[in-house]
């Protein structure tokens, strides 16, 4: 699972890839961090995956960051610089004008680009 617009979050890497256990390949974790039952299982549905992503967005796992810089800011300055970067990413995503690609079809963005609107 991947965000197509920039996001500043401890558990989303700089390429937009979401880092949650249930999306990791089944089996043993070579680093010993995750239990096999925490990783991908065929019982997961779109609903359980979306609930996990929403939970991760609301409550980051600072012990296993995909974006170390975002995790550091989240721990040290959550209501300051971290919050400002999150807001910038949100506004930029709303007004980026970037097309959205779905199943090989490109859809225009919902909002036109607006320069200088970033917080």
Structural summary, described in words:
The protein has about 120 residues and is mostly helical. It has a single domain (about 20-105), classed as Ubiquitin Conjugating Enzyme. It contains three helices and two strands, in the order αααββ. It has helices at about 45-60, 70-75, 80-95, and strands at about 100, 105. It has a two-stranded antiparallel ribbon. Helix 2 packs across helix 3 (about 80-95). The radius of gyration is 16 Å and the shape is globular.
> How many whole angstroms does the radius of gyration measure?
16 Å
Distance between the termini: 27 Å
Proportion of residues in helical segments: 25-40%
Sequence of strands across the biggest β-sheet: 1-2
How much β-strand is present in the residues? 5-15%
Largest sheet composition: 2 strands, antiparallel
- The CATH homologous superfamily name equals Ubiquitin Conjugating Enzyme
Structural class label:
mainly alpha
CATH topology: Ubiquitin Conjugating Enzyme
Query: Any idea of the CATH class?
Result: Alpha Beta
| Uncertain residue ranges | 107-119
Outline type: globular
* Average pLDDT taken over every residue: 79
CATH architecture: Roll
Number of strands: 2
- Count of runs of 4 or more consecutive helical residues: 3
Number of domains: 1
Give the SSE string: HHHEE
């Amino acid at each position: 699972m991947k965000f197509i617009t920039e996001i500043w979050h401890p558990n989303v890497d700089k390429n937009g890839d979401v880092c949650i256990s249930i999306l990791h390949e089944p089996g043993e974790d070579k680093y010993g961090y995750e239990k096999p039952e925490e990783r991908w299982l065929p019982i997961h549905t779109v609903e359980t995956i979306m609930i996990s992503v929403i939970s991760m967005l609301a409550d980051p796992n600072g012990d296993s960051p995909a974006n170390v810089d975002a995790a550091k800011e989240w721990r040290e300055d959550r209501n300051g610089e971290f919050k400002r970067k999150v807001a910038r990413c949100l506004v930029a995503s709303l007004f980026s004008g970037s097309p959205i690609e779905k199943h090989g079809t490109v859809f225009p963005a919902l909002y036109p680009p607006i320069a200088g609107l970033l917080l």
